[in-house]
Amino acid sequence: MVGDKVRIRFRKTGDLRLISHHDLMRCFERMLRRAALPFHSTSGFNPKPRLIFAMPLPLGISGSQEIVELELDQPVLLEEVQAALVRQAPPGLEILALERIDPKTTAHVRRATYRIALETSCVQELAERIQALLAAEACWIERERPQRKRLNARPFVSDIRLKSDALEMELVVTPNGTVRPEEVLKLLAFENLIEAGVPLERTKLELEEEALSPVPAPGHSESCRP
Fold this sequence. Notes:
Layout: E1 4-12, H1 21-35, E2 51-53, E3 61-72, H2 78-88, E4 93-100, E5 109-117, H3 123-135, E6 140-143, E7 149-152, E8 157-162, E9 166-174, E10 177-178, H4 181-187, H5 192-195, E11 200-207, E12 221-223
Parallel strand pairs: 3-11
Antiparallel strand pairs: 1-3, 1-4, 2-3, 5-9, 5-11, 6-7, 7-12, 8-9, 9-10
Helix pairs in contact: 1-2
């Protein structure tokens, strides 16, 4: 039986953005074991801490407000859990805040916001492309993996905000998926930023329970013909 459950918000930056989600899970597992916290384990021959990440962070993208939920065998003061994890966290992983949640609750992401730095010279040209994309009824992209398909990305783009030195993309997340920030940049003809090594940052994950307005219905996808 799960005795307690806490939601952890953390930041993943620096060189740590170059590790995979699987490696991040192993990192948290080592932290929990070294912190000697009474975590709840999975069953089977190779038990592991019961960790549930709200939305795995893609390789190469840093995260400012990531979310993971931890199940415990018994209640522990949140201050003690946070202090223990902070002591074991490697450089680039910062434990920001903890909250106690109902053991039956699971985080469901509603929106994800991404940010990428821009040069000032790009702003005017990009503003026109953003306006055109947001005004369009459909923006089709083609994916090769995990299977080849054609997807209308427009319903998944909630907003695009252009700052003086950065671009922010607010993307809708549904049980059937979402659009990737790299795909939005490609629609804007600015995929060269990724190719040039400009880092992406996920600045926010908005959960369903935090929603203040309804999410637009997602678009459909269709298989590509060879």
